[in-house]
Amino acid sequence: MSNDSETSPLAGKVALITGAGQGIGQGIAFSLAKRGVKVAAVGRTLSKCENTVAQISERFGTEAIAVECDISDLAALDGLIERVVATYGRLDILVNNAVTTTINSLMDTTLEDFERGYKVGPMATLRMMQLAQPHLLASRDGNIINLATAAAKRWDSSTYGVYAAQKEAIRALSRGAACEWGGMGIRTNTILPLAKSPALEMWEQWRPEEAAAFADTVPMKRIGHCEDDIGEFVALLCSPESRYVNGQSIAIDGGQVNMG
Questions:
Q1: How many domains in the chain?
Q2: Tens of pLDDT along 203-216?
Q3: Of 39, 60, 104, 135, which has the highest C-beta tally within 10 A?
Q4: pTM to 2 decimal places
Q5: How far, in Å, CA of 79 to CA of 17, rounded?
Q6: Residue 91 belongs to some domain of the structure
Q7: What are the b/e assignments for 231-257, b being 16+ CB within 10 Å?
Q8: Residue 122: CATH number of its domain
């Protein structure tokens, strides 16, 4: 069991992480738990979230709960926030990580697919931020971490237009929150991660040639690790050392995308 909570300034804080049953969300949960953060691991599949919680308990001995919730059901989000606050008495960190999308040409994209992606993406992100905001204000050191994608920065965005649109909307909402709430003690930042998640592995199997060519464009010549690369950076972003970082979109991808 390894735990840095005794010396961590994040010890005792509470984080709600959507899509925490696997991949990047799970990696973020591990890195925060290692620092003594109590984690609410939220996802559509309860068993996956329970696995995350079990690993947190075994590796770090930190408190954590698994919560089943499909965040596309916007009416369920009030109860989600209430449950976490009722359990731990506070909320300090909100990570909007869950995603569903369509990678398809514009002509082959249905409005139903587009709408569902927007519900899970910017609509759920906005509602989660709205519901969490009073609790993050009470924290006096609230952090919101939203996830976007470098797909929006592709020179050729063929078949990625819908996915990019959903994630760019989240970036715009994040900037708005950073400007409106920054003076109140809530920092909002967006990360654009590249990591060996189940979603990326599916993409590699689906489009192997494209995935291999993409990997070759990463200057550091490797795909990131969900915990060691993405999770650790998020933990840093939530720490006092990053207290003046607000409203930024940060690519954690080994230099693959030029954010300029």
A1: 1
A2: 788 788 888 888 88
A3: 39
A4: 0.94
A5: 15
A6: yes
A7: bbbbbebbeeebeeebebbbbbbbebb
A8: 3.40.50.720
Residues near 116 by beta carbon (within 8 Å), at least 6 away in sequence: 72, 100
Pairing between strand 14-18 and 93-96? parallel
Residue ranges making up the domain that contains 58: 14-194+226-250
Which backbone phi and psi does 3 adopt, to 5 degrees? -150, 125
Please check whether residue 98 lies inside any domain of the structure: yes
Buried b (16+ CB within 10 A) or exposed e, 24-43: bbbbbbbbbbbbbbbbbbbb
Q: What pLDDT score does 5 carry?
A: 63
Instruction: State the 10-residue block means of pLDDT for the chain, 260 residues long.
Output: 72 98 97 98 97 98 98 96 98 94 90 93 97 97 96 89 95 98 98 89 84 88 96 98 98 92
